[in-house]
Amino acid sequence: MEPKEKASHKAMRAPEHLQLAVQIKKDWTMTWWEQFMILSRRTFKERCRDYFDKLRLLQALGIAVLLGLLWWKSNTGTEAQLRDQVGLMFYICIFWTSSSIFGAVYVFPFEKVYLVKERKADMYRLSVYYVCSTLCDMVAHVFYPTFFMLIVYFMAGFKRTVSCFFLTHFGILLIVITSQVSY
After folding, report:
1. How far apart are CA 82 and CA 90, in angstroms?
2. What is its membrane topology (predicted)?
């Protein structure tokens, strides 16, 4: 049935006004960079109120302290103790993955109304919106895990070297950024 449908779609012609609209190249009044600068300022102001509130900070602090107390100065002397620290890392990864995904899930429905309206008016490119949204979200998605890891890493008794801390922190940031961008 699929080849028949493809043949029927090829045989159908679009109305003339739609063909002309597709052929006309869209000229933007502003460059991509100018649109990016304007939209990023607006998006950052809007997202700052959402991301940097006391409740989110308290949540990150509370969970960091709770995990730090649960894994207080855990050792890696035996295989069971090492598995405990691996379990902590797994929990941290799951926590930050779900936090960043739910952050994107909750923000987009509110912005969708404005996005559709502004896109119909051809105010900016969709690529500009996506890049601005992703970069503005990135500020919070880097700040909170950094704050979180500074507390948990030292309370849980992970290896206290600069390279180990930054490798662990870099791994958590990759997980957070990947889960935020993939949505």
Report:
1. 12
2. Multi-pass membrane protein
